[in-house]
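User: Second chain of the day. Same drill as before.
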Amino acid sequence: MALIFIRTAIIFIVLLFVMRLMGKSQIGEMQPFEFVISLVIAELACIPMADSSIPILYGVIAILTIFILHQIVWLFQLWFKPVKNVVSGKPSVVINKNGIDEFQLKKNNLDVSDLIESMRVAGYFNLDDVYYGIYEANGSFSALEKEEKASTSLSLTLIDGGKPDKKNLERCGFSGGKLDKILKEQNAKIKDVVVMTVNGDGRVYFQKRGHKYQILQCEVNGQW
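Assistant: Same format as last time:
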């Protein structure tokens, strides 16, 4: 037991030292390659701690090797911009002056519902609360917000990527002919709609694929 305790303490001290040398991003929002390195280091640390038959020096050398590789990658990113784009990726503008950029969403393996969730976490509850929305290289969402937000009412998603949300459509009174009427006015079919949301004030955010978003107004069944 004493041997396991000592081995664990040594690995802990080495890990603490290495993570501290790697910089503040290791304890904040990590880049993809830093996340991978953290996972590998965690795995390498567990092996010598759990298996006393493995010399502890092997674990220490492996961890220090990963640290050296991290520093090499960091230096290459610092000196050569293309390397940073390849290793860490680059920001993606998913909301622009025309609305949602479906291509950028799909490029990042995201859909409209993921975007709306990220916006809510950031404090934006309507798609037109921001001029621009950006997914940073580390996966965080940031935005250039408008001076005045659309409303204080929560928006519900009625159509997401050409697929209707029947529960929300019924809740807002959009089931049946009302939705068909709006689609007909916009010369669109459901499958052509990137997104359609409505808030409690009847403010509709409507974006047809290949077109700029529009703000429409209609009656809804109360607020929520």
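The first strand starts at residue 92 and ends at 96.

User: Great, on to the next one.
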